[in-house]
């Protein structure tokens, strides 16, 4: 798993006029984000984080870049911060990183229906994107929808909620219109 990156934080809005930013940490203990050393962003840059207050940090680029004003800080808003997987502690036997779910086989009613393509989190909780042939399905990552995660077996079991609307295939729409 060397080389795999784990999303550990996101740069938020600027704080003040001297280049400080709000940082949303995904670490179990949010303050630990700074202890991982160099954080890599989604554009290839490297940053070190020094906390200056509750959720407020100073970012310094490994290339010598220092955020000196609000405009420089504003340019980093929504920048994702990653840590190399091998720098993180191994999860407990019954735990996993969300990134570990990508690629697992998805079982529904005893049959394999696809694989986990991605894990999304837009702030209201994580969801799994599941590939089903040429289509994909997005389900909330809750115990009700994903009652079993078997990392050793390389699979997750899903139960679709009744509220999910299944759209007919394009061919079915054409036939219904005739």
From TrEMBL:
Gene3D superfamilies: PRC-barrel domain, RimM
Segments forming domain RimM N-terminal: 8-86
Recorded coiled-coil stretches: none
A UniProt-annotated Pfam family: PRC_RimM
Start and end residues of each Ribosome maturation factor RimM PRC barrel domain: 100-163
One Gene Ontology molecular-function label: ribosome binding
An individual GO BP term: ribosomal small subunit biogenesis
Chief location category: cytoplasm
Record's keyword terms, sorted: Chaperone, Cytoplasm, Ribosome biogenesis, rRNA processing
Domain of life: Bacteria
InterPro entries associated with the record: PRC_barrel-like_sf, PRC_RimM, RimM, RimM_N, RimM_N_sf, Transl_B-barrel_sf
GO cellular component, one term: cytoplasm
UniProt-listed SUPFAM superfamilies: PRC-barrel domain (SSF50346), Translation proteins (SSF50447)
Functional note: An accessory protein needed during the final step in the assembly of 30S ribosomal subunit, possibly for assembly of the head region. Essential for efficient processing of 16S rRNA. May be needed both before and after RbfA during the maturation of 16S rRNA. It has affinity for free ribosomal 30S subunits but not for 70S ribosomes.
Subunit structure: Binds ribosomal protein uS19.
Domain notes from UniProt: The PRC barrel domain binds ribosomal protein uS19.
Protein name, entry field: Ribosome maturation factor RimM
């Amino acid at each position: 798993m060397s080389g795999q990156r784990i999303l550990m934080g996101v740069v938020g809005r600027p704080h003040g006029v001297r280049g400080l930013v709000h940082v949303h940490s995904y670490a179990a203990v949010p303050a630990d984000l700074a202890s991982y050393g160099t954080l890599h962003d989604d554009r290839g840059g490297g940053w070190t984080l020094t906390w200056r207050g509750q959720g407020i940090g100073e970012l310094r680029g490994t290339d010598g870049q220092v955020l000196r004003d609000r405009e420089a800080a504003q340019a980093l808003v929504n920048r994702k911060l990653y840590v190399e997987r091998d720098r993180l502690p191994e999860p407990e036997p019954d735990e996993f990183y969300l990134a570990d779910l990508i690629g697992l086989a998805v079982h529904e009613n005893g049959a394999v229906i696809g694989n986990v393509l991605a894990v999304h989190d837009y702030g209201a909780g994580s969801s799994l994107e599941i590939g089903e042939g040429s289509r994909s399905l997005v389900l909330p990552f809750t115990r009700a929808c994903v009652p079993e995660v078997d990392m050793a077996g390389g699979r997750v079991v899903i139960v679709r909620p009744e509220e999910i609307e299944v759209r007919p295939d394009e061919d079915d729409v054409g036939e219904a219109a005739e």
